[in-house]
Amino acid sequence: MRVALIHYDVNRIANEPGSKTVMRHFGHMPNIQLLYVAAILEKLGQEIAYYDIVGMEMSNADLEARLKSFNPHLIGLSVFTSHFHTAKSWAAYAKSFLPSAKIILGGVHAAIFPTETLRYIPEVDFVCVGEAEMVLPEFIRRWEANESFEGLRGLVWHDVDKIQFAGFPELCLDLDSVPFPARYLVPNHKYFNFISTLRNYTVFNSSRGCPFRCIFCEASGTRWRGRSAENVVAEFEECYEKHGVREIDMFDSSFTVDRKRVLEICRLLIAKGLHKKIIWDVRSRVDTVNEEMLEALKEAGCYRIFYGIESGNPQILKKLRKGVDKHRIEQIIKKTDDVGISPFGYFLIGSPGETPETARET
């Protein structure tokens, strides 16, 4: 089967600058989830074409010509709530010149609204919910055998005039078995974000899920699973050796949950000399790090930690179910700065109970 995966341009606001301006000043990051999908499909023996509209500086005419030449059986797009209507327009656009191709959507929005996503985007044929490696192998097998999708968990599809959904799939518990993202398909030298330091730059996931229960996050209360330290460091090596990566942006919701694993990752990075070749950052809560971990992270090449602080008001923090207090926040920010790691705070304005006074307090 020929499968085309499209990382499309996203216009988040009506007056957002064009893609070239975005690339020059704000940065453009790889779609790591879609690159995982590419790697999984390749492992299943499928022929893949990957199009990053911004990173490859493609016009609509370029994309249309390439898609017509490739003539895919299936087109894959990812969708987040913030660009739901953009995904809808891209699906309609692809169908306008490839009417026989089937379109499949995945992503966070699809996982939260599985049947609604299919109902409100009539151009889409399938929605994949859950983790791709748990759904795509059986989906591909049934497609190639021309079998019914009845009962296939993790897939939403049209069955004549009805939308069918058999429920969510199991979680992947052995993350070491998942192939590394197919970064060779994309221009890694084009990627960066507005505060990254080096190129080539890439995004990285070493774990999935989050055991904490903040009310604003889609990962809240999901089962945390971590890749082994050896597997994580092997991907660091591949990023450096094969793709020229010099900066890694760790996108885990909860990288620092398992302290033993964090310390082992740091130890192996140092043992392999990668701490002198790659700089990297992580996302963390303030209550899952201590001084020992901070020092290990610094020695292993971590240069920035993104902390989910959210608010400086105790009542707002309680409503958000953050489970931390202002003293802990101040203490960890100071310790992070003291060891030589740059602390970066994420904040929410407009939380339940927010007032001008609580916002100013934050």
Overview of the molecule:
The protein has 362 residues and is α/β, with parallel strands linked by helices. The chain has 2 domains: 2-165, Rossmann fold (3-Layer(aba) Sandwich), CATH 3.40.50.280; 195-361, TIM Barrel, CATH 3.20.20.70. The chain is built from 13 helices and 16 strands. Strands 3-1-4-5-6-7-8 form a 7-stranded mixed beta sheet, sandwiched between helices. Strands 10-13-14-15-16 form a 5-stranded parallel beta sheet. The chain has a two-stranded antiparallel sheet with strand order 2-9. It is globular, with a radius of gyration of 21 Å.
Kindly provide the radius of gyration, computed on alpha-carbon positions and rounded to a whole number of angstroms: 21 Å
Helix fraction, binned, reads 25-40%
Please give the order of strands in the largest beta sheet.
3-1-4-5-6-7-8
Tell me the number of strands.
16
CATH top level assignment of the largest domain:
Alpha Beta
- Label the structural class: alpha/beta
Ranges where pLDDT stays below 50 over 5 or more residues in a row are: none
Approximate shape: globular
What is the element string, with H for helices and E for strands? EHEHEHEHEHHEHEEEEEEHEHEHEHHEH
CATH architecture of the largest domain: Alpha-Beta Barrel
- Largest sheet descriptor: 7 strands, mixed
Strand content: 15-25%
* Overall number of structural domains: 2
Task: Kindly report the CATH topology of the largest domain.
Answer: TIM Barrel
Can you identify the CATH superfamily of the largest domain? Aldolase class I
For the termini, the CA-CA separation is 53 Å
Tell me the number of helical segments per DSSP (H or I, 4 or more residues long). 13
Q: Overall pLDDT, averaged? A: 94
